Amino acid sequence: MNQLKEGKTMEILGALPNLMHLRLSRASYVGKELVLREGAFPCLRELVVWGLDQLRKLRFEEGASPQMESIGINYCRLESGIIGVNHLPRLKEISLGYECKVARLDMLEEEVNSHPNPPVLRLREDRSDIDLGEVQGASVEGEATESVPDHAGEDSQAIALTTSEAVNPNSEGGN
Description:
- The protein is of the alpha/beta class.
- It has helices at 8-14, 105-114, 127-130, and strands spanning 4-5, 21-25, 29-30, 33-36, 46-50, 57-60, 70-74, 77-78, 81-83, 93-96, 101-103, 120-123, 131-133, 158-161.
- It has one domain (4-138, 155-161).
- The protein has three helices and 14 strands.
- The strands form four sheets. It has a six-stranded parallel beta sheet, with no helix packed on it. Strands 4-6-9 form a three-stranded parallel beta sheet.
- It starts with a strand and ends in a 14-residue tail after the last strand.
C-alpha cells in the first residue's frame, strides 16, 4: 500500500462525502503534522491513529469534522500536542491509549474543559506516563504533496489504512 502524506492526499480523503470512520495505522500516514482543515471530513465520526512514528502534531481547524464524536490515539508521540478539539462541536470522547505521549496535556485538558459539550478525556495510562509537558524545538513546518487517483465521487463509509507491518491484536472491528 502507498503511504499517505501531508497535503493533497488528506485533502482528497477529506472531500469524501460519506466517510464516517478513518483509521490510520503503522506507516499508512507519513508526516509530522495531521491537520483536519476547515470544510474537510464533513461526516467523519471517528478518527483512530495508531503507531504513526513520524506524527508529532494533531490539529483540528475551525469548521473541520463537525460530526466528529471520537478520537483514539495509541503508540504515538505527539511532541507538538493535540490542538483544536474545541472546534469539534459533537466530540464525546478522546482516548489517549497505550504508549501515547502528548506534549502540553494541560492545554488539551483546558480545551476539553472549556468545550461547549465537554467530551470525556480517557487516559489509559498514568498521566505522568502520557504528558510530555513542554517539548523544546517541537515546531512542525512544511507540507508534502502527493497525487492519488480522485475517487471522491465513490460511496465510502469507512477507511482503514494499514501496511503489512501493522499488527493490532487489540483492534475492534478489524480492518
